[in-house]
Amino acid sequence: MKHRHLAAVIFSMLMLSLALSGCGSAPVKGTLFGPPVGKAPFLRKPRATISIPAIVDARPKEEHEGATVGTRLFIFFGVGVHIRREGNFITNDFLASEQAPAELRTLAMQWIAQEGIAAKVVADGDSDYELRLTIEHLYGTHFAANKQTIVVVGGGNRTDAVVDVHSRNYAPYGNVILKAELVDKRSNAAVWTEHVPGYAQRPAGEERIAEAQNALQLAVADALSTLSQRVGAALDRLGNGPSGPPMVLAAGSAMPPVFAIERMSRFRDFIERVYVDTSSGKVLRHEISPAMDRFSSRPGDWLLSRITAEGVELSPEGYEAFARSLANRYDLRMVDDAAHYHFFGVLGTGAPAASKLP
Amino acid sequence: MLAASSTGCYWSSQPQAPHRSVELDLAKMPALTIPAPRPLVGTRLIVLGRFDTTAPQPIGGLYDRDEYEVSPLYRTYFFKDGAVEIFEHVSDGLRAAGLTVLKDYAGHAEPALLEAPLRARNPVLVTATVTALQHDQIREPGKTDWEGGRLSVDLRVTEANGSVRFAKTYQIEGRIPYDGRTELLRLLGWKLAETLSNDPAFLAAIAAQPRA
After folding, report:
1. pTM for the full model?
2. CB contact under 8 A, B70 and A334
């Protein structure tokens, strides 16, 4: 009789502890739709049209099947139990999205259109470029570790249970890796290929599965924001991008009356741009605006901007001519960035001073 | 018999590191010293494309293997731009070797996107994808503190016309004593540059050779 009572206590404590070591509320079906689709905070002049065909799903098996935190259970007959849970939770198709490729395609079309990267974005049909996407990774995850020891002490007409619990909460993460390829449909040649990552972190807490799902949604938004920037930068390189038609300057052009220098903020969020009067070297205007492309240059370095005082993007040849016309008075050197001249001030006022462009 | 059959251990073997991270075994890892890329002389301009990445988050964690109640892993770290930081350090290391390197920040050194003024200089293009990047802080038994890291990079050298001259995967790993100042990612990046400067096949692909 006493043993049956002890077993009942142990069983109750075991069920309670297993329930307590769970992951918060009951899991709900996941979707990639969540955060608002981004919108360009500056004027865009998109011209190209893009189609986005069905997205290829190349995720590894464990990101479809998911994983739960493993449990180690040791039962001491008549005395108690020791439960140890440790390992990685990974979302499965139900918790991430059962329609991940289709949802991602819809979101990619919305992001590219709303960020002003292309004049028209279609699923199929006529377009200048085709943006082919492959999902290499897409999951929410968190690490987990906790342990509980339940010791039941029976004596006389009473039974006591001693419970020792240790647990630690870890942050959930969202991970998305897309392989992106931009194909020029006129030549059917890939003009740009890159892996585009999206990451997010959520606070550690009790609602770990829900937060892993949130982290995944945020990671999808982060990946599509980066994708928009990268596709925009590639189209700009092709002279067909959202910065508008590039201005072409002839070699040997006269010095422009005003030029701009710029630097990326430390965390790549903003561009600081300073407009300078060419003849006097005086600063005319100072602007801080969101960075169109987080990776367009190295943070902190002053560069000769590729934007004119009128806000027009210079063509590569135009930029070269622009730099050479300024080089009689200003110290400009291509020392780090293949697409920009570094700006070192007025010639002869700093050391070392360059006498000519490399 | 009943007691014996009712007593038991039931378990599943679980990793002790976040998904797609590995448990770093410091005893098997080489010590990272200040890398010294070999002096080189090159005849061609190198355009190093901004590294892209397939590596996961968290980038690493703080492990205390000396004293813990639940798990050696105490916390995890998020660092979104690790691949770009590695890119900067590899570039610095190659320059320290004596090579002329310009960085393609806005691009991935994609041959089709090379602008005409740069193409006219006939550069050789180096692109790289970071496939693993991990940076852990680890306290070993005896309260000795370490930083450990690993880096895996798929690297490719192409001509401006798109023809591939060279492709190889490089893996760098190592540990350093923790002192609060050493930048592990910088060491990993420079170590990759040092490894590249000692790889004859890479040097042949970029038309460089050891300085006499």
Report:
1. 0.90
2. no
